[in-house]
Fold each of these.
Amino acid sequence: MRLSRYFLPVLKETPSEAQIASHRLMLRAGMIKQASAGIYSWLPLGYKVLRNIERIVHEEQVRAGHIPMLMPTLQSADLWRESGRYEDYGAEMLRVTDRHERDMLYGPTNEELITDIFRSHVGSYKDLPLTLYHVQWKFRDEVRPRFGVMRGREFYMKDGYNFDLTEAAAKHAYNRHLVSYLRTYERMGLQAIPMKAEGGPIGGDYTHEFLVLADTGESEVYYDSEITDLRFGDRDIDYDDENACQAVLDEFTARYARTDDTHDETVFHDRVPEARRRRARGIEVGQIFYFGTKYSEPMGATVQGPDGKTVPVHMGSHGIGVSRLVGAIIEASHDDKGIVWPEGVTPFHVGLVNLKQGDAEADKACDGLYRDIVELGLEPLYDDRDERAGGKFATMDLVGLPWRITVGPRGLRNGVIELTCRRTGATEELSPEKALAKLAAVYSPHHPVKRVEPMAKRSFHTWL
Ligand code: P5A
């Protein structure tokens, strides 16, 4: 993309309404614009990041054997009356009436809708296990929407629902989600720690929240510092292997890590030596639940078991805050000049800065590099505007692309360009060929098309 043809409305001033870095930077980098309280338009740069996060979520869900679909944003109130949540949900639920005076609502979550789909089409244990998911907009009329996309009223969520014959099978689905979530967040450059939490309006007391540690996080958390040494890495887990998934859950939940809802000071002191006790803040980027037959029983979602008996299915639901993640990643990865995108989610792979726009040699070199970068399957953002170098660098730093190539007449005379790493600031003078080879190498595990990550043994389909 050429910057002269793009829509990147960066702000010079720091917006006064934004209290935390991610909100400030998303506004300044022209990623979002508030439409009304807690509701945002995603401008082109923000939309690219949102889509990248969504793509990683889909790839990891499909890898775990979960099946993508799409449910609507508007739901009938009648389904929610069946589960008893229509009254319980309170003022957070946005209720609307259609022209026929039918009660509708903008879905805050989809347990009822998916249970209705299940009961309409599945009747036998032979169709289990089944996990369906979608990525869709939700609405919760939060009392205090704030921090930009972090606590929105309209927000984008991946929500998945498992249906199993027995509690043990549903616990395996729970463990499978935990494993796939660890992998998902790490691909986004984040460490998200599973912590014992509360079920809240979703239900059940068997639940973990995934938290990214950050001073600006809304949740108060307590944990054993050893937990921050754990990495999922590039393990190739067979998601059908119950023991393998259970072992990951055991490893990642053995140490004390709880949100303030479940924190117990006595247990904390008994189990964690003082030097390792931490109290901090975190951003909740996901939550997984096992709630048994809470919805299947009242809504009649049953199957016939192998013994011929009809039983309600065991269920859980599993959410990832896709739009919140954009903010969470920025909270975890920025400096005083701007955003520092992890390679896995960056909106463009490399910024190309022409120090002397209009100089025949510099323009030609940039055009050539642009083509070569595209040839590698990567996306450049080429600042081809007639602006001072300082202004171009400031925009690139604000926007936060992990790599920048700088091209100027002086370097070209010596056959070199500059390759700069946004995270460290380190700059190397290299031949264009060497710079391109380096980009290809750093992006190979994150490549949008030619990713070389090991794929699970189960059949893997692209989701689009
Ligand atoms: C699990 C999927 C659920 O709703 N039902 C379907 C379950 N869980 S949850 O924890 O309530 O939400 C899942 C994730 O969504 C994000 N989230 C939000 N993001 C932005 N603004 C909000 N107001 C908001 N509320 C929830 C969180 O990341 C949460 O973990």
Amino acid sequence: MSAEGASEGVKLWGGRFEGATDPVMEKFNASISYDKAMWKQDIQGSVAYARALQKAGLLTAEECGSITGGLQAVKEEWAANTFNIQPGDEDIHTANERRLKELVGDVGGKVHTGRSRNDQVATDMKLWLRDYLTHIASHLIELIKVLVDRAEKEKTILMPGYTHLQRAQPIRWSHWLLSHAWPLVIDLERLRSLYHRINTCPLGSGALAGNPFPVDRATLARELGFREATKNSLFAVSDRDFVVEYMFWASLVSVHLSRMAEDMTLYSSREFNFVLLSDAYATGSSLMPQKKNPDSFELIRGKAGTLSGNLCGFLMVMKGLPSTYNKDLQEDKVKMFETACTLQGILQVAAGAMATLKVNEAACRRALTEEMLATDVAYYLVKKGMPFRMAHGKAGEVVKLTEDLKCSFSQLPLDKLATVSELFTEDVSAVWNFEHSVEQYEAAGGTGLSSVNSQIADARAFLSSFSLTQQ
Ligand code: ARG
């Protein structure tokens, strides 16, 4: 074992320093408490880099073997939770290198040849994010399936559709469910293009100027599963656009779910009573025994705010940084990990709460009131040849008539309707029917049954062929 670099508290960068780091500064500077989450990716990157060094003639096969063997042993310690973080372990890169040198001796120091923590950290983060995106995509797919499955099963349930939170037109509950599935489908498409942009390899960029040794960066990139090596070393070590883009993506997903959660919060109130949350996704009040609170959905709504805050916070860190790596960038991981963990919770809770709630079909039905058919009165006249603008006015007159006579549409005698337009005949009675109303919207994208069925089929087809890596 080497004496240098292996003893407690010796810094990787300690050569020119005489004085010790202030303990408060030491803590302030350290990122190991959170970047240890990348232990696997850090080792993965080092193994590939050691092989690249061997190919470049900078390590003998034997040296490379002992480094990769040592890294494998470090990896096993992490996996078994026996890795001991030491006081001088500033970050995951320092910790792994320190341990490697303890295990294999001075040769361990060769793995950093031409490499800097600057290209190392950017590579680790991209590897970590790539793994995470694959994982989060499966949670998102799970949630979309919950919404689509429900839409399939509950196609006959009708409810009011709202604009301005005012009752507008009758719709299918399935159509509402799918209206929250589609933005998530598009989020998956967005994720695929984001994955493509993330998937370039910064390793081999050094601290900033590049790699002075004949390291084959294209092969190195391929070994790590990246599609290519980054194009410019200065850009590579300073680039955190992938973190920003990912956090924007996560914020947008959470905003989509926050809007769905807002509807669910309203719809589960006594005033609406359209849905009943499962006990598994609601909580009670410590004071009011009758309460059942939609905390799952409220937290989804609240955490969407936190995620947008993370995005804006990190953009502020990036803004105005001088060229290449600056330690400010270390803040990236705090935000990236928090966003990752929060988004996973949001997706899992949303899927669970949406899968287990019960729809109150009768309450949805009771909320459908005949004035919501006013547009259909206009459409009735349009179908008899009247221009829509005139028909809209005539339908307004019919609404006025119901107000004057204090009755609903279906209670209006035909002779009264005839005073508004002689186009009204017996067949108008078919208009006073919510199923009939909903079924008019058969054009693609509407709330009619055939459109809902094609939406379900299209969403399922998308999910079954989806892959993060296909472009
Ligand atoms: N812990 C650092 C970070 O996360 C690693 C890179 C440090 N580079 C340096 N030159 N100090 O950003």
